[in-house]
Amino acid sequence: MGKWTRRAFIGAGVAAGGALVVGIAVRPGNPIDRLSPLVAKGEGEKLINAWVKIDADNIVTAIVPHVEMGQGIFTSLAQMLADELDADWSKVRILEAPADAKYSSSHIGREFLAPNLEVPEILEPTVSGSFLSLATAMTLQITGGSFSIRGTGQRAMRTAGAAAREMLIAAAAKEWNVPASELRAENSMILHDKSSKSATFASFATAAAEQSLPAKPKLKSPKDYKLMGKAIARTDIPEKSNGSAIFGIDADLPGMKYAAVKAAPVVGATVEAMDATSAKTMPGVLQILNMGDFVAVVADGYWQAEQALATIQTTYSKTEGDGLDQEALFTRYATMLDEAGDTDGDVETEEGDVGEAFASAATKVEAEYKVPFLAHATMEPMNCTAWVRDGKCDVWSGTQSPLMARKTAAETTGIAIDNVAYHNAYLGGGFGRRSEMDVIIMSTRIAMATQYPVKMIWSREEDTMQDHYRPSATSRFEGGLDKDGKAVSWSNIHTHLFDPQEAPTVPYYNIANHKIRKVDVPTHLRFGPWRSVDHSQHGYFIESFVDEMAHAAGKDGYAFRRELLAGSPRHLKVLDTAAKMSGWDNPLPEGHGRGIAFVPSFGTIVAEVAEVDMTGKKPKVTKVYVAADPGFAVNPDGFAAQMESSVAYGLTAALYGEISVKDGAVQQSNFHDYPILRINEMPDVVVEIINGDHKRLGGAGEPGLPPLAPAVTNAIFAATGNRVRELPLSKMNFA
Amino acid sequence: MITLNVNGQAKEVDVDPATPILWVVRENLKMTGTKFGCGVALCGACTVHVDGKPVRSCSTPVSEAAGKTITTIEGLAEEDGTFSKVQQAWVDEQVAQCGYCQSGQIMTATALLKNNPNPSDEQIDAAMAGNICRCGTYVRIRKAIKLAAGNTPETQEA
Question: What chain A residue is nearest to B95 in terms of C-alpha separation?
Fold first, then answer.
C-alpha cells in the first residue's frame, strides 16, 4: 500500500469493509513476551499487558500510543487507564509507546471505516482487534481526528486498566487462597477486607503477568469513576515551564551537524542550476547539497548553515503551477461549479426533491462563500534529525505518526525497518501538519549524503511556504423558505476538500429536502489536514448560510436554529446553553453584535456565541461563549483548554489567515504577512461542558474550531448589517 | 573566545561574534529551553534576559551580551529546582499546551512583573503582545500573571 492519506484510508476501508463484520474476534494471547523488550527493560519492571507495567516500587506506568502536541493526551489517557486499574494517581507514570507496529492505533481504522457501528457491549473491549491487522498493514500509529480519547481511551486504555486489575486480583486470590470476588483494588493496593490483608500491586505483578488476559474485563460505570471526569493537573506542564521539556528540535547527538534547507518555491519544480561559490568558503560550512527538489547546506552550526544558504543562487525548472495566481484559482473553482450546473458533480447526500421545493419556495436565498488556503504555523518550525551509518538509521523528530515516520525512513534509506529506529519527542504544535512525512524524507536523504547525525531545521519562511495547506474552497447555496419562514430546501455545491465525509452535511437540521454535491478542482499545492479538517470550511459556509436564511425568514439566528433542531433534545440543550451563557436577549451597545453558530463534529456537539465590537477600525471579538457536549469530558480542564485553544486558532484564521499563490508560489513567509492572533486580541472565553452521553465520547482538539468563524461573522452582521462571505476579515473594508 | 555570564555561570564560547545568542545558548551551551520560532524577532519564543531586560535572542548578536548577564528559562528556578513564582503560577493555572512558546512567555512575564509588580489587564496585554502562542493559551497566561503578581509583589529572578 502506498503513502497513507485520510482519503486513501477511506477508500481502503470500503474494500476491507467485509472484514469488519466477520473479523470480530478475541485478540489472541497475552503479547507481553513480545512487548516487554520494547517497554519494560528496567530492573524489576513487569509488563501486565500491552499498556500497563508495574515496577518493584509499585509505580504503575501507562503506555500511551499517542503523541503529546499540547492536547494533554498523555494525562487524559493515563487517567482512564489508572481509574479502571484503581491505581494511586501519585504513583502513575506515563510512557509514550514506541514506534512499533504492535502499538498501532487500530481504533482509528474502526472510526474511519464504520464510525456509527454499534457493537454489542460484550464485544466492545475486543472489537478493535478486528482492525489490528488492517491498521498494522497500513502502518498507522497516528494522533489526529480528535480520536485519542474516544478511540484509544475508551477501547484500549480503559480495557487495559480493567484487565490489569482483574489479573492482579486473580493472582492475589491464588496466593492468598481466597475467592477473587472477596478482593478489591484501591490506590494501587489489593485488599481483602475479611482478613484485613493488603498488599501492593507490585507484589502480585509477576504472577499477574502470567494470567491469561480476561476476554471481557468489567469496566466501571460512571458513578464509580475516581479519576475520569476530574480536572487532574497535566503531567507535562512542569517540564514545559522550566525549559526541560524535549521537543523534536532539541535532539542532541555527539558530533551532530546542522542543515538549513530551501525547497523549490513552486511545488514540483527542481533545481536547474545552483551557484554556491561564496557559500562554499563561508565559515563552518561542511557540505552543500543539491537534492533536486531542495538545496541543503550542512554546517557546524545552524546559523552558519542559514547564512551560507542565503548566498546560494538557484534557478528552477518550469512546472504546471507556474503562472498560477490566487484569483485564477478562484476563477477555476467558479468555472467548475458553473459547469456542474444544477445536476452534475458528485452527490454526497440527497433527500426529497430540492428542485421542486426550491422552485415553489415562498422565499429564496442564495449565497456564495470563499475561504483561502491556510498554513498550520506550528510554533516549532518543522525539523528532523537523522543519522545513517553502518546499515542503520536513527531518526529524531516530533510527529503525529511515529510508525509511519519509521516506515518512511526505512523506505527512503532502503534500510530494513528492523534496523531503523524512530525516536519521538514532544511536538511544538501539530494541528495536522505533523502527520505529513516530508521532513522525515528530506532529513533521511540529507543523512544518507553525510557521515554524521544532521539536524535539519526549516526556517519560518520554509515552514510557511512549504506547508501542506488547508485547501481554499468555494461553496454555493440555495435555500428555500415557506410562507411561515420555515426552511424547506437546502442545496449546496462546493469544491471538493478532504474529509471527514460528513463535514458538508447537516443531518441534525430538520430540512425536508436537501442535496449536497461537490466538484473536484485539482490544484498543484499540497493539501493536508488542518485542525478540524473540512469542518473548518464547511462550518463557516453552513452556519453563515443558516444565518442568512434566518434573516430572510425574519427570524433571530438562535430562534431559527431552535426550529431546525426541534426533536433533537441533546442538540437543543447545547444551543440553548450557549445562548443562555451569552445573555442572548440582553441588548448590546450600538456598534456591538452577537452571533451564534452550531457545529457538531468529531463526536462533540458545540455551539458558540461571539460578541464583537465594530466601533473601532477593525473588528474586535470581545467574548466567546462555548457550550460543548463531548458525551463525557474525561479531563474537564483539559477539555476547556482545547475549547479556548480552538477559539484562538479559529479566530486567527477568521481575522487574518490567508495563504495566497502568485506565479505558482506561496506569497506569505513569516508572521509579518501570516499574522497569528496575539494576547491583546484574545477574547474572554467562557466554556460550559455538558456530559450528555457517558457511553460514546467525542473529541476535544478540533470540534471547538468550526463554529468560531461563523459566530464572529454572524455577530458582525448583527452589528453592522454587513454579511461576510469571504474570509479572512482583514480583506474586508470596514471603513 | 567570548566570555558570557549565563544563569550566574561564566561560559567561554568560540563563535563568530555575530552569531545570535539563541544559537550559542542552544548549540554551544546545550541549553535547549530557549526556542527558535521565527528568526526575525516577531514571535518571542526565543526571549531571554540580558541584564534583566527581555531581548529576542534570535536577532541579538552574542557580542552584545559580552560582559553582561544572560538569564534563560533554565535560570529562573532555584538551585534545588523550586520554581519561581511565575513558573509556579504557570503550573497552577495549567497554562502550557504544546509548551513550545512558554519559555519565551515566562521570560517576558518575569520581566514584566519585575518592573511592574501589579500590572493592569491592559499592561499585561501590552507587555505580552510580542509573544505568540499558537495554541492560544492567552486566557491562562493572563490568569497566571495575575496569580504570580498577587503572590509576590516583589517578583525576582533566582
Answer: A237
The C-alpha cell that represents A308 in the structure block: 551560507
CB contact under 8 A, B91 and A233: yes
For B33, which of A244, A306, A646 is closest by C-beta distance?
A244
Question: In 3D, which of A323, A326, A266 has the Cα closest to residue A726?
Answer: A326
In tens, the pLDDT along A234-272 reads: 999 999 999 999 999 999 999 999 999 999 999 999 999
Nearest to A61 by CA among A173, A202, A155: A202
The string of pLDDT tens digits covering residues A253-262 is 999 999 999 9
Distance between CA atoms of residues A3 and A16, nearest Å: 17
3-class SS at B95? Answer: coil
pLDDT at A464: 98
Instruction: Give the whole-angstrom CA distance, residue A708 versus residue A704.
Output: 7
Q: What is the mean pLDDT of chain A?
A: 89
Sheet bearing A46-49, strands edge to edge: A46-49, A52-54, A60-64, A92-96
- Number of alpha carbons in the 13 Å side-chain half-sphere of residue A541: 31
Cα–Cα dist B77/B99, whole Å: 17
3-state class (DSSP) for residue A386: strand
The yes/no answer on whether domain A6-224 falls in CATH 3.30.365.10 is yes
Please tell me which of the candidates A247, A641, A678 has its beta carbon nearest to residue B132: A678
Chain A residues touching residue B121 (CB < 8 angstroms): none
What residues does each domain of chain A span? 6-224, 248-319+382-457, 327-373+469-731
List beta partners, residue A640.
none
Confidence bin at A45 (pLDDT 50/70/90): confident
Residue A696's pLDDT band, with cuts at 50, 70 and 90, is confident
Structural class in CATH, domain A248-319+382-457: alpha beta
If residue A207 lies in a helix (H) or strand (E), which one and from where to where? Answer: helix A202-209
Q: Using the beta-carbon criterion (under 8 Å), do A671 and B38 form an inter-chain contact?
A: yes
Closest residue by Cα to residue A378 from A251, A466, A293: A466
pLDDT in tens, chain B (158 residues): 899 999 999 999 999 999 999 999 999 999 999 999 999 999 999 999 999 999 999 999 999 999 999 999 999 999 999 999 999 999 999 999 999 999 999 999 999 999 999 999 999 999 999 999 999 999 999 999 999 999 444 444 43
Question: What pairs with residue A455 in β-bridges?
Answer: A258, A385
First to last CA, chain B: 27
Alpha-helix residue ranges (DSSP H) falling in B15-101? 21-23, 85-92
A237 contacts B98? CB cut-off 8 A: no
What would the pLDDT profile of A474-510 be if each residue is shown by its tens digit?
999 999 999 999 999 999 999 987 778 889 999 999 9
> In order of start, what are the domains of chain B with their CATH numbers?
2-75 (3.10.20.30), 85-151 (1.10.150.120)
A347 close to A518: Cβ distance less than 8 angstroms = no
In order, the DSSP letters of B106-155 are HHHHHHHHHH-SS--HHHHHHHHTT---TT--HHHHHHHHHHHHHH-TT-
- CATH number given to A327-373+469-731: 3.30.365.10
CA distances from B34 to A76, A246, A253, A334, B38 (A): 28, 11, 18, 47, 13
DSSP code string of A213-232: PPSSPPPPPGGG-SSTTS-P
Predicted TM-score (pTM) of this structure: 0.92
